[in-house]
Amino acid sequence: MSFVPPSLPKGSSEVPISSGVHLPPTSHPYERDVVLRHVGDQHPDEDHVSNSDAHTEVNSDPELDAKHTLVSWEENDPENPRNLSRLRKWTITLISSALCLSVALGSSIVTGDIPGPMEEFQVSEEVVNLTVTLFVVGFGIVFTLPSALAPNIGCLIVSRALAGLASSAPMTNVGGTLADIWDVEDRGAAMAVFSSSIFMGPCIGPLIGGFIGETIGWRWIYWVLFIFVGVVFAATVLFMPETLSPVLLRRRAARLRKETGNPTLKSESELQHVSLAEKVKISLTRPLILLATEPLLICMSGYLTFIYSLLYLFFFAYPIVLLPKGLNAGEIGLTFIGVMIGIFCAMLLLPLQEKAYRKVCEKRGVVPEARLPLMMFGSILLPFGLFIFAWTSMSHVHWIGTAIAGAPFGAAMVAVYISANSYIIDTYQRYTASAVAAKTFLRSLVGATVPLWVNQMYVGMTPQWASTLLAFLAILAMPIPFVFFYVSSNQEVRYYELMVFSPAQYGDKIRARSTKAN
């Protein structure tokens, strides 16, 4: 077996590593997402050098070459997650999305029968609402079984909090998993499926939970959830492979050392010598650092947090508005079909967005701002949905008006989320998991507070004025995607063949202020 060292790119410098191998100057642990995603992972557009088994990168100094040989991916390497078959990629994508669907469903299904545990445990609505708040704070599912068997309200609340903690993994890691297996120009459809699962779950939850609570009791809400999660868990164990390149390359290096007897074969992550304490520190602090210092991530995460909070607000606002109109819990759950119709309609726009995005990639390479037109459309549609919801909420207006209001809201919600999520992942390719974790942390933290104040807001202000206030906040947030799309340096860049958009300049000036962005 031979290992052919490629030459270093022109103009690149070398930084000595303690093991004796010289690597490009991005080998410091804070310059790569060593814990979560994309350490040593190469985009297919980068240069590769091939041989029979693996391609390696070594220093040109013969004395140092004898000490370590860097194992990496070769071109069209079958073990590289980016080179999996489309069937395998879509299997991983669908299972990952089902994991997120189970988490999202678990967060909302209990809102279908809030009065059930109130009556059995003789507690207030605010106390029962904690079963949503504490779940969303952590996001988890393992402790769903204790929730179904809870003998008192304390056990129910604690088990929901622990379930929330356990479910944080899918919500923060699936975005990174999809970035591991899909090339940037092909990632849009997979991200759409993932994003839709996050929002479809909360819409299905009240519908299912309402009828279960009305017919066989609130405890069966947790039993049904437990069964669904069990099926998804089994699929995950059976069909989900490891996709993180540093882990796979470390395994490859170990296998090659065993096969060849050559102890100098090392993966990049093995040469970094990052201690467990350092890895934990990076995992815990980097998302917070990004969230506090990256203008792009701050704006996008803030907008997504607002959208997410609106969704959870609707779980409690719908009963407040529709119970006086004579609907029961099961019938109120059916009105969320309007939101699901809006989600489906937004998905129909995705092929048009993806076609335009690929044309931009063909002409200019990867341009993250080319993801934003769908978000621009959603930001305009969102206030309309909120205004319709506000002024159809009076008791004398037929309930169909409230149901119809869900359609533009659902379409806007998914259009904004899919576009913004893809924009974040395309921008922070080397720090995908950290950026997604930062966004998810803020979104879940703020969203978890909604059940604590939504009743007071809608009762104190009346539903029409409370929703009108939210509509005006949506108008204030509307310019965000337009600013990122149009504000640019002076370079002339044309956005090719996209609907009615005139020649535009991308937001590279703003992106340049985000130091971790590509």
UniProtKB/TrEMBL annotation:
Q: Which domain of life is it from?
A: Eukaryota
Check the record and name the Pfam families matching this protein.
MFS_1 (PF07690)
Record-linked CDD domains: MFS_Tpo1_MDR_like
Give positions of region: Disordered: 1-28, 42-64
Q: Where are the transmembrane segments?
A: 90-110, 130-150, 188-208, 220-249, 296-320, 332-352, 372-391, 397-420, 441-459, 465-487
Extract the GO molecular function terms from the UniProt entry: transmembrane transporter activity
Q: Where in the cell is it found?
A: Membrane
Keywords from the UniProt entry: Membrane, Transmembrane, Transmembrane helix
Return the PROSITE patterns for the record.
MFS (PS50850)
Membrane topology label: Multi-pass membrane protein
GO CC entries = plasma membrane
Protein name, UniProt field: Major Facilitator Superfamily
Lineage, broadest ranks: Eukaryota, Fungi, Dikarya, Basidiomycota, Agaricomycotina
